[in-house]
Amino acid sequence: MKRILAVIMCLILAVGFSACGNGNRNNGKIKIVTTIFPIYDWTREIAGNSDSVEIEMLIDNGVDLHSFQFTPKDKIDIITSDMFVYVGGESDKWVNDVMADKQNENMVVINLMDALGSGKKTEELKEGMQEEGEEEEEDEEGPEYDEHVWLSLKNAVILCNAICEGLCKADPNNADTYKANNEAYKEKLKALDADYKAAVDSAEKKTLVFADRFPFRYLADDYSIDYYAAFSGCSAESEASVETFTFLAGKIDELGLNSVMKIEGPNMSIAEQVKSIASNKDLTVLTLNSMQSVTAADIGAGATYLKLCSENLEVLKEALK
Fold it and tell me: What top-level class would CATH report for the domain 2-116+146-190?
């Protein structure tokens, strides 16, 4: 009952906001709502120092994209915004319910999966990877796409173009500034992309073993890196079987790798299990940041998309030695 009342209040407030008109609703600024950190940071870079926009990151408390649940306040923020940018994968199905009540008919909405078009990839089931439970498989409708489009610097260039186009539409008076900012930022993305390519081309190893989910398929494909993992990138599984541990440890031994990989977060259990089975007891556990759980505090401390990608590059160099 409390939940129902909260939603009703949300809609009443939203109607009140809409009656004020876009300019009065947010002190005359263009209100942009983004879901996750990479989108927020790209939009911030393209907007630059513009006083005309206010950008909000919806998922800012470390909650994973796959487990996010919107609140009545989140709904108000979205349906009263001038521009909304989200990933658009399976984890964002909730957006359809929210957008059914949008108050701004001129809202610019950008779905990154749609913007990527033919560049999006389906989830990949690699050798040794633990499959989802039967019940979840039966509920699937059509192909499940890998949502982690932001982990490719090449994709980032395409997606920043889409964001820039949307920002110019939402705030045409400052379009020239946004276009210039976008071009300058894309040069930085392309330069880091070249650094990644050079590092992988000169690396001794070309394979990663992830004792975790693997959300880095776009990155791996960009530079022809092979991989083995406990689970797919969007898997809801968290407990690996003995067969999975054994397979991953065997691949590490077979390939002569010096590290086992995981994504950000405190859970070391699978990596430590693999390490205990592998012949090389001096294996290093390395972490690549998937940027799904970056918080507002992290941003305040200086986190940027380019900085985290650069840190991932240093980890990747170590992993491929």
Answer: alpha beta
